[in-house]
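Example record for the data management plan.
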Amino acid sequence: AQTHWTIENQLHWVLDVALCEDASRSRMDNAPQNLAILRKIALNTLRLHPDKGSIKTKIKRAGWDDAFLASLLSHMR
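Corresponding structural encoding:
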């Protein structure tokens, strides 16, 4: 049971730190749930990409380098 909570806490920590989930101000209708799903898709895409580096580094690199962003998107399944 404790390993379940460890995994659960790590997921939320990464979502908050790397994708600033707690700073989201969306509160209306289905927006919070929809954005949470998009953040999880983005996180999984970043994790599955074969390049080394942290999630935060990959996010910055995708913002700077269109070729890297295209590479990230092409690795989606």
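Summary line stored alongside the record: Residues 2-74 form one domain.
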